[in-house]
Amino acid sequence: MIDDLYSIEESAYRDSVIHRLDARVKLLVALAGIVAVVAMPYSTRIYELGAVLFALSLVLWVFSRLSPAIYLRRLALILPFGIFIIGFQVFVKNPYYEVFHPIAVLPFGIAIYAESVEFASILLVKFIVSISFIILLSSTTKMQDLLDAAGRLGMPREFTLSLGMMIRYLFVFAGMLGKVWSAMETRCFDPLDRALPYRYRFRQLGYTIGMIFIRSYEQGERTYTSMLCRGYGANASLHIRSKPLRTGDVAFLVGAVTLIGLSAVMIYIQP
Description:
Blueprint: H1 2-12, H2 23-39, H3 45-63, H4 68-88, E1 102-105, E2 111-113, H5 114-140, H6 143-152, H7 157-186, H8 198-229, H9 247-269
Antiparallel strand pairs: 1-2
Helix pairs in contact: 2-5, 2-9, 3-5, 3-9, 4-5, 6-7, 7-8
């Protein structure tokens, strides 16, 4: 998990046409794609819109010059959480249908309905498209640039300041956890080693987790003291300098949002 955190930021530091776009533009395009696919009513029309938006994210991914393996690996990490919720829908009679036709009956009276399978597939399309835009955004934009973009777009300073501290502390915690894990490996301790007694492994893991909590608390105290020394207070805010959009950024934003909006409207109004 820690390695994935660093790999995401490493991908964001590469250079391409998509990487050089203003973070505000990429953030708005990603939000437009997610809102378009989520706002589309639950019907089979979502398949067409999903295909268009997924193709758009795929084209942008190609222009970002990132490996497809990066996308597939990050999708595989997130997909199980969505599949668990989506797969459960095939057993539920949802309010979007009036008549249900069972296609399989399992033990204990559990039935799988054709309409519920269709509903689950619609949810899956919405999930895949939304996650694809999020992966594209996070893989081509630095975390600090995303924070600055949100501030320039009008996010309240309380949120930008809190998110800024969280981003910085996230990598501090990742480094701290990496040192603890290296210390365990240096002492030839593997919590998954079945040759060791379960009680011994659980006790050592308990000590490790407790030590991480203590070190995190101490680091938090040092960080807060440093913030007070630098003038942090109730009226403190994260300074974000103004940055005008370039002509190319504006053209890309208008073109992408227009494509997403027209696609959603045309597919929605078709008979």
